[in-house]
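Hi C.,

You asked whether I'd gotten around to modeling the 182-residue construct. I have! Everything is below, sequence then structure, no commentary in between.
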Amino acid sequence: MSTDIKISNSNFFTIGLFAQTTSSPLISNTTTETSLIGTGVGSLIVPANSFKVGDSFIGSMAGHINSLNNEYIRIKVKTGSIILGDTGLIKLGQCTNQHWDLQLRFTVRALGAAGIASIASFGQFTYSKDASDTFEGTDFITINTTTFNTTINNTLNITAEWNSASISNNIYSETFILSKIY
């Protein structure tokens, strides 16, 4: 019996595209939408006309969060002003130096200009609150067939926006890894 493993598909391996090497800036005491991505190695840019149908990516981001009880935060996944995913407003329980996690997956479904191109995005945002050791959070699925455009440069960004400004409401990321999986 042979135990040789033969790999005939070069797309089998995950390709690292970006790895965050410094924490993002602290987003605190503001209602301004601000990037959660710190500096890193690799690139978050897909050049114009470089996507292929079926291109699939995963992203994993994590960090720390503090919030007053019953405050709201919104996380968006974007390329420029084009929204690829949106948690909507998330009502938070009180958090004091707690952890959060964001898991993302994307698949390009069609190529072309806005109105023709299509991308499907899925995400889950979870966090720990002070009152218990259970995870809270939300998830989203977005299929963008109206504004996504593969004929232009696309630069991935992940943002956070607080509903009210307070020094007690803050979030930052410590790690973000983006990989191509197909």
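If it helps when you're writing up: The chain has one domain: 26-180.

Thanks,
B.
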